[in-house]
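User: Last request for today: this protein with 2-(butylsulfanyl)adenosine, please.
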Amino acid sequence: MKRKEAEKRIAELRAELDKHAHLYYVLDQPSISDERYDELYRELRDLETAHPGLIAPDSPTQRVGGESLSAFETVEHAAPMLSLDSDPSRAAVEKFDERVRKAVGDTVRVDYVVEPKLDGASLEIVYRDGLLSGAATRGDGRRGESILENVRTIPAVPLRLRSDERASPSFLALRGEVIMQIDAFEKANERQIEQGKVPYANPRNAAAGALRQLDPRLTAKRPLDIYLYDILAVDPDPGVESQWEVLTALREWGLRVNDLPRLVDSVDAIADYHQRMVDTRDDINYEIDGVVIKLNDLAARELMGTTSHHPRWAFAFKFPPRKEVTRVLEIMASVGRTGVVTPVALMRPVEIGGVTVSRATLHNREEVERKDIRKGDRVRVQRAGDVIPQVVERIPEKGKRRAKRFQMPVNCPSCGTPLIERGPFTVCPNTLECPAQLAGRIIHLGSRHALDIEGLGEETAKLLVEKGLVRHLPELFELQAEQLLEFEGFGEISANGLVEGVRKASHAELDRFLFGLGIPEVGRTVARDLARHFRSFEAVRAADEEALQEVPGIGPKMAEAITGFFAEPGTAEILDALMDGRVSIKATAAAAAPTIELEGLKFVLTGGLERLTRGQAKELLESAGAKVVGSVSKKTDYVVAGSDPGSKYTKAVELGIEILDEDGLVELLASRGVDLRL
Ligand code: IVH
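Assistant: Here's the final one, the structure of the complex with 2-(butylsulfanyl)adenosine:
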């Protein structure tokens, strides 16, 4: 066939295959047989093999790339991917509705879109000029890992937006959920078992795991599906004014949208919908764990705004969690890093929603009394999402003799100090020396989102404390391999590994260090905000309540908790010791104040750098307000090309984008007042 003819036939075949894929995967309305589809597909593939110059990235044959990645690239989301405020009670929904009406009830008609809360893996996908050009995991909400190659393999994700009913925008970032249908999940698990592999705990894990395969060919084998539900960013403005219109627009662009959303205008109607979903939950072919309520009017949403965690215009009305019945074998008191003593029920292991549970919290002494849980009782246990399982209630057994009531210990089970009562909590006041608290603090400081100390797990931390190797936090940073070798469980390799892990971690980023200290109220996001705002540890430490409240998202309560923490004499002594050569804070961009000089400019990095690492370059640019993105497009402002730059460099030349070398980048940053400290 001549090239001209081939080109025409290829275009026909692609249009035909796209149409059927859309009918089959997006709309669930297949109109031709699988055999016919495969025939068309083969014809296209053969033509493309004969004319490789005609292959296009959005051809249906181009879903599965041939290459395996060595790691995922981190990418910034087009807009923060927040989470949702949630609760399973009607009262909480009433409160939410009240707040909404109070804030915007005078300006707009308050109605809501209610839709199922899908229990899958949240992701961002990006279309540029109508072409699928990015996909990322949610990550920490601001940045995730680029999983474009894997997402391309999901047949329900169009490689190109449709534009016949509505013009496709030049930039579109969407949020959605990747799920695995339950029947597909069960089949996948049968296969795992047949092959002697461990089955997946639930469809969400299976879906999330599939998305994180470095080899897209493996992802392609997993039966993944997707639903899109939100626009994160779009340009030009498509003129949609409500969530309902968003869903319509997404459908018109050929994207897969759930068909269960409804428009409602009262808490009663929300509650009806919720109940209907609870009742049908087991009849639909994917897992849902609640109902998301979204204010329909987009302008009113803007008025309501967001907190640092979640939008004020949406709410997740969760389903009652899954529960199972088992028996309590023992109740013991466990001391956490904050000194709070928690009664914990050790139970006969039971499987709840795919996870085996053998411990559950009883929260505090009042809860144990109120629920009257004793050793030997039959109990109902629930596991909600990722939280610690909890004992919900006792199931009375007629005529059965029961054990004595559980008594909270009088002295700390770890250090023997007399316990004190603080509200409903029982607390060990020996904050600085109690081994259980110290072990808890070490575990937290070494945890993944804090200093991420390699070789330091829960058991090791407990051992270090128990053997007296670490008597207070600063001593963690003085450990010597020889000391460790004396103890069982440590060989040369693990001892050196731990010491090396601690050494590496002792040069820490400010936000991670702040998070790792376990300051009350300071989670990862707040730690990051503090680091950005104050730039140095000493500045955070010295800040008074007023100064703290200048940080967006920090209110009076948080400010008080933070100053209270630093004012504690024992804490101060530990912090002094840590800062006295044991821990040093990296001068990275995370600690640099954002300047507005490079605000909004888009950079792409390619090739090897010498004076900076890629990560440093990225952080420095971001600290100046620039965005670092993964691929070059017309919207890119600068490409920074190091040694041996790749195809991104060629593309930049093609598009006439300004190219900087490393010195040029350093100069640019310095000229904009970015503190480089190279
Ligand atoms: S809307 C800013 N709608 O639930 C509001 N989220 O913490 C964005 N989720 O991680 C969320 N189904 O990934 C929305 N229909 C739905 C959803 C949904 C599932 C996920 C979302 C988020 C989590 C809530």
